[in-house]
Specification:
The structure holds two protein chains of two kinds.
Chain A (H helix, E strand, L loop, with lengths): L5 E12 L2 E13 L4 E5 L6 H9 L7 E10 L2 E2 L5 H7 L4 E4 L13 H13 L3 H14 L5 H4 L9 H13 L5 E5 L7 H18 L2 E6 L2 H7 L2 E6 L2 E7 H6 L4 H8 L44 H5 L5 E4 L2 E3 L2 H7 L1
Parallel strand pairs in A: 3-8, 3-9, 6-7, 7-8
Antiparallel strand pairs in A: 1-2, 1-4, 4-5, 9-10, 10-12, 11-12
Helix pairs in contact in A: 3-4, 3-6, 4-6
Chain B lengths: L1 H28 L4 H9 L4 H11 L5 H13 L13 H36 L4 H15 L2 H15 L17 H39 L2 H8 L4 H39 L4 H10 L3 H29 L1 H5 L1
Helix pairs in contact in B: 1-12, 5-6, 5-8, 5-10, 5-12, 6-8, 7-8, 7-10, 8-10, 9-10, 10-11, 10-12, 11-12
The chains are: A alpha/beta, B mainly alpha.
Chain lengths: 331, 322
C-alpha cells in the first residue's frame, strides 16, 4: 500500500498562557491519502484551525509552538523543517484557504498580482507568464471576464468572488494538499454551495487532497470521504463519512448530529426541537485534569470517564473512537 | 482623480484668501510701528519725516483701504515692498527660499526614511536591543525641545569634537568648484537637519513601529506567508506598504509644524533662510515681509497637502475608489 500523503503523529501544539505552557492540540494522529477529502469537525476552540496552521508550519510563535510529535508530508517532517524548506512547501505542495475572505487578501495589490506572485515564487515564471496563468486560474475558479478582473483590487470584489480569488491563489501551483479552514463561514448560503461545487470540480481535475475544516455537519456529509471529530484538542472519532452520519459512536458526535434541525421540527411551537449539547467547550487550562474532556457534558458519563482518558481504539475497519462506552458496546 | 484634484485646488485658493485676511488683520492689531523702528535706527527723525514715511508706506490710510490694496496687490502677484530692506518682498523671499526648502525637505525626508526604517526594523523583533533603543531614542526625541537639541549638538559636534561647522550655510571664502561647494553646504546642513528632524524622527519611528506591528498580525500577512513568500517579501512588500499609510498622513499634516520648527532651528544655526527673515521682520515690524513669508508658507503647506493626497491615492487603491 502506498504511504499516505500526510501523516500526523502524536501532534501537540502548546501556547504560553500566563507563564504556563498549555497544550491546545494533543495526542493528535491522523493520515490523509492522496486525492481524498478529510473533514475535520468540531466546535469553535477545539483546535481545528491550530492543527491546520501546524501543517502549514504557521503556528503563531510566540506564544505558540509545536511541542511534540511529527507531521510528515510525503516523508518530509514539517515540525523539523527549516524556514526556507517550509517556504518552498507552502503555497506549492500544501496551501490553505482561510475563513475570512474579506481580510485575507492584501488591500493594496491587485488580485492578479496576489495570484501571480505565488506562481513566480515557486515556478520562477516571468511577470507576463505568471499574469497569464493568473487569468487562466481565475477563469477556472469561475470568475467572469477574468482578463478584466485580474487588475481589480480586493475591495472591488464581493465576498464570494474574493474567496474564489483565495482558492485561485491556493490552487495555482497545483498543491498535493489543500487545507480549507471554514472557507464558507463568512459567505451567503447560495455562495457556499457554489464554492463547494467548485472545490469538488477542481478536485476531480487536479486530484488534490483536501482537508476541510468546518463545524457544519451537512457540509461534511456532502463533501468528505472521511471525517475526524475533534474535541478539546483531541481526535475523538475518526472514520468514513457515511458511517459517521449513519452510526456515530462517540456521544459528542451523536450530539453534534442531533443538533441538525429536521424539516419536520417546528421550533417556534416546540423549543425542544432544536437540540443542544449542554455546557461549553472547556478552556485549554481546565483540560489539565485527568479523565475524558467531554465527561462533564456527556449524557452517558460513567465513573471511569472522570478519572481515566479513553485511548483511541479501533472499533471497525478504518474506524476509531476515544470513548469507554463505545468501546464496551463493540466488545 | 482630476475632478477631486481641481476641487482641492479650488478649496486651497479660498483658504489662502482667508489666510491673507486673517494675517493682515492680526498684524494690524499687533502693537508697534515700523516707521518708529526705522526712525530709531536712523537715530531720530522729525514729526514731518515720520508723517511723510507713513504716507509713503500707505500706513495713514484706514484699515479696510489698506487691506483691499494689499489683497489687490497679492492677486496681481505683488507681495509688497519691505520697509526695512527697501526691496520687493517677492525678491527677498525668493532669495531666502532655497535655503529653507533645502533644510525643511532634507529634514522631513530624513525623518521619514530613517524613522520608518527604524520603526520597521524594530517591529520585527519586539524585545530586541534595537527595538528598545528605538523606544528610548524616540522618547528622548519627543521630550527634548528643538533649540536645546540644536545647542547640545553644536556643543558636542562643533565645539568639543569639531566635525561640523557651528553656523551658517557656507564657508565665508567660498571653495572653488561646484562639488566643493555642494560638499561645503552639505557639511553645514548636517546639524540643522539633525536638530529639526529629531522630533519627527522620534515620532515616525514610533508610528511606523506600531503600525507595522499591527499589520504583521493581519490576515493578509498570514495569507502571504501561506503562499510561501520569503520573509523579505512578506515584510517589505506586503506589510510595509500598508504600514506606511499613517506615516504618510502624518507627514502631510505635520509639514506646517516642520516649517515653524525651521524658524527656531534657523535662528540657532544662523541659517540664512525664511525663518531668520521672519524672525527679523517681526523685530523690525516689517509687516509686508512677514505677511509675504506667512503667505508663502501657506502656499507651500497647501501644495504639500495636495501632493500627500496624491501619494495616498497611489499607495492605497481603496481611496481613489471612494
Amino acid at each position: 500500500m502506498q504511504a499516505p500523503l500526510l501523516s500526523v503523529r502524536d501532534l501537540e501544539v502548546s501556547f504560553q498562557i500566563g507563564g504556563e505552557e498549555v497544550p491546545v492540540v494533543r495526542d493528535l494522529s491522523f493520515d490523509v491519502e492522496y486525492g481524498e477529502t478529510l473533514g475535520i469537525v468540531g466546535e469553535s476552540g477545539c483546535g481545528k484551525s491550530m492543527t491546520a496552521l501546524a501543517i502549514m508550519g504557521l503556528v503563531p510563535n510566540p506564544p505558540g509552538r509545536i511541542s511534540k510529535g511529527n507531521i510528515l508530508l510525503e516523508g518530509v517532517d514539517i515540525t523539523k523543517a527549516s524556514e526556507k524548506e517550509l517556504q518552498s512547501l507552502r503555497g506549492n505542495d500544501v496551501s490553505m484557504v482561510f475563513q475570512e475572505p474579506m481580510t485575507s487578501l492584501n488591500p493594496v495589490f491587485t488580485v492578479g498580482e496576489q495570484i501571480a506572485e505565488t506562481a513566480r515564487t515557486h515556478f520562477g515564471l516571468s511577470r507576463k507568464e505568471a499574469r497569464n496563468k493568473a487569468i487562466e486560474i481565475l477563469r477556472l475558479v469561475g470568475i467572469p471576464s477574468p482578463e478584466k478582473r485580474v487588475d481589480d483590487y480586493p475591495h472591488q470584489l464581493s465576498g464570494g468572488m474574493r474567496q474564489r480569488v483565495m482558492i485561485a491563489i491556493s490552487l495555482i501551483c497545483e498543491p498535493k494538499l489543500l487545507i480549507a479552514d471554514e472557507p464558507t463561514t463568512a459567505l451567503d448560503v447560495t455562495v457556499q454551495a457554489q464554492i463547494f461545487d467548485l472545490f469538488r470540480e477542481l478536485q476531480e481535475k487536479t486530484k488534490t487532497a483536501i482537508i476541510l475544516i468546518t463545524h457544519d455537519i451537512g457540509v461534511v456529509a456532502e463533501m468528505a470521504d472521511r471525517v475526524m471529530v475533534m474535541y478539546a484538542g483531541r481526535n475523538i472519532e475518526n472514520g468514513p463519512a457515511t458511517d459517521f452520519i449513519r452510526a456515530p459512536q462517540h456521544p459528542y458526535t451523536r450530539g453534534l448530529i442531533s443538533c441538525i434541525p429536521t424539516l419536520q421540527a417546528d421550533p417556534p411551537d416546540d423549543p425542544d426541537a432544536l437540540f443542544e449539547i449542554p455546557g461549553v467547550v472547556p478552556s485549554a487550562v481546565e483540560l489539565a485534569k485527568p479523565g475524558c474532556a467531554f465527561a462533564p457534558r456527556c449524557q452517558n458519563v460513567m465513573d471511569r470517564c472522570r478519572v481515566e482518558f479513553p485511548p483511541s481504539a479501533q472499533i471497525e475497519n478504518n474506524r476509531s473512537v476515544s470513548c469507554w462506552l463505545a468501546q464496551e458496546e463493540t466488545v | 482623480m482630476v475632478k477631486s484634484l481641481s476641487k482641492r485646488i479650488g478649496n486651497a485658493v479660498i483658504l489662502l484668501l482667508a489666510v491673507l485676511v486673517l494675517n493682515f488683520t492680526l498684524i494690524h492689531i499687533a502693537p508697534g510701528d515700523p516707521v518708529e523702528v526705522l526712525a530709531g535706527e536712523m537715530g531720530g527723525a522729525t514729526p514731518e519725516l515720520l508723517a511723510e514715511l507713513h504716507a509713503d508706506f500707505g500706513l495713514d490710510q484706514p484699515f479696510h483701504i489698506q487691506l483691499f490694496t494689499y489683497l489687490g496687490n497679492v492677486l496681481h502677484g505683488n507681495l509688497g515692498h519691505s520697509f526695512y530692506y527697501d526691496k520687493p518682498v517677492t525678491e527677498l523671499i525668493l532669495d531666502r527660499m532655497g535655503a529653507t526648502l533645502l533644510l525643511v525637505i532634507t529634514a522631513l525626508l530624513f525623518a521619514l526614511l530613517v524613522g520608518t526604517a527604524l520603526g520597521v526594523a524594530s517591529a520585527q523583533k519586539r524585545n530586541s536591543l534595537l527595538s528598545n533603543l528605538v523606544t528610548i531614542l524616540s522618547l528622548a526625541g519627543f521630550s527634548a525641545p528643538v533649540f536645546w537639541i540644536g545647542i547640545m549638538l553644536i556643543l558636542l559636534l562643533s565645539v568639543a569634537v569639531p566635525i561640523f561647522p557651528i553656523a551658517g550655510m557656507a564657508t565665508a571664502d567660498e571653495p572653488e568648484g561646484t562639488f566643493a561647494y555642494i560638499f561645503d553646504v552639505a557639511q553645514h546642513l548636517v546639524l540643522p537637519v539633525l536638530t529639526l528632524a529629531s522630533i519627527y524622527l522620534a515620532f515616525y519611528s514610533r508610528l511606523s513601529r506600531a503600525s507595522m506591528l499591527e499589520v504583521l498580525e493581519s490576515d493578509y500577512i498570514r495569507t502571504a506567508r501561506a503562499k510561501g513568500l520569503s520573509r523579505f517579501l512578506v515584510v517589505y512588500k506586503h506589510a510595509l506598504r500598508n504600514a506606511v499609510l499613517p506615516v504618510v498622513t502624518f507627514a502631510g499634516l505635520q509639514f506646517a509644524q516642520v516649517i515653524s520648527g525651521a524658524v527656531l532651528v534657523e535662528t540657532v544655526f544662523a541659517w540664512p533662510g525664511l525663518g531668520t527673515l521672519a524672525f527679523e521682520s517681526i523685530l523690525r515690524r516689517d509687516s509686508p515681509t512677514l505677511l509675504g513669508i506667512l503667505f508663502f508658507s501657506a502656499v507651500l503647506v497647501l501644495i504639500v497637502n495636495i501632493v500627500v493626497d496624491i501619494a495616498y491615492r497611489v499607495i492605497d487603491p481603496r481611496i481613489s475608489a471612494k
